[in-house]
Amino acid sequence: MHFVQRYLCYVCVRERIFELKAGEKKRIKITFGLGEGEYEFLCGYGGAVHGGKVLASKLVGFDVDAKGLAKNVRLINPELLVKMRFHGAAPLGRIVKLYDESALPRFYEILKDESRSGRELDMGVIYIGLISKRGNKESVKELLDYYKRSVDWDKCRDDEHDLDSHVFSKFDALGWLGFIGGEDVEEVLKDAMTVDGAKELAKEWLVDIPQTTFSVLDNLRGHAACGLAFSDNKEMLKLIKDEYAKERKVCLDAGITSDGYINQLTEAMTRIDIVKDIGLEGHRKLHDGKGSYSNLYQQYIRKYLLFKAGPPVKKQF
């Protein structure tokens, strides 16, 4: 078990050792004496630290009062969730099963907190996208407001990781805007695929942005295409396909096999095919922490790459 109150504490139960047969259930009662404060609780069943796969319970939180009594039992609070790190890929799809749209206001507040790290903001964007139902106008507004908002780059100018995380949180906002969808969103993303449209939409935070190791503008346009790839509007999907064909020819004529914009257009084309085959809900479920997302994309993306790819490598997390 582990608890979180500015630290992690792991407790292994060894006094009672037993084997579980297939389909068998056992109940263990454990009592802890805890000081006053906020705690998060997770119960796991499995081997030692390196013992392989472990089955885990749902994440819950609770407060302990001055008398040592638990109160306000709840699912893990979003403020802590965005700070959590996982070994391998985060099991986003499994985590968001704990929440419904009633939790969204707390995630909205996270995006409004400019003191947060780029990674925390990026995770806030992702959770809003995964929890929101299709067409949620409030989530669209909050993500779009966040995307347009300026960034105090001086706070992360000397931290390359935090700088990149801030930028990628903006990229991801475009993708999840497309996942939530709506006519207004489609027009925003369509405009953002153009150079002038991308500059206009991001004008507040593109000002004085530090040098990065990638082309921000190319990636913005490409992520807009990736968001638009979730659309069921045939006109929008044709726009992506035409843009991919045009950029593919330009790159091949120039002997280029990879750049920020064509890479994202390639992913957008792949996304169109995957959503067509498994649907939006099927795509949401790919975020399971088991490598399902990357494994499926490796299979679909090969026909759109500008170079001959090696055999797919199955990822396990």
Strand order of the largest sheet: 2-1-3-6-7
Helix-strand topology string: EEEEEEEHHHHHHHHHHHHH
Can you tell me the number of structural domains? 2
DSSP helical segment count: 13
* Radius of gyration over all CA atoms, rounded: 22 Å
Assign an overall shape.
Answer: globular
Helicity level: 40-55%
Query: Which spans have pLDDT < 50 for at least 5 consecutive residues?
Result: 1-8
Task: Return the average pLDDT rounded to an integer.
Answer: 83
User: Into which percentage range does the β-strand content fall?
Assistant: 5-15%
Q: Note the main sheet.
A: 5 strands, antiparallel
- Indicate the structural class: alpha+beta
Would you report the number of β strands? 7
Describe the structure.
The protein is of the alpha+beta class. It has two domains: 2-75, no CATH class; 87-304, no CATH class. Helices cover 49% and strands 9% of the residues. The strands form two sheets. Strands 2-1-3-6-7 form a five-stranded antiparallel β-sheet, with no helix packed on it. It has a two-stranded antiparallel sheet with strand order 4-5. The longest helix is centred in the C-terminal third of the chain and has 25 residues, at 260-284.
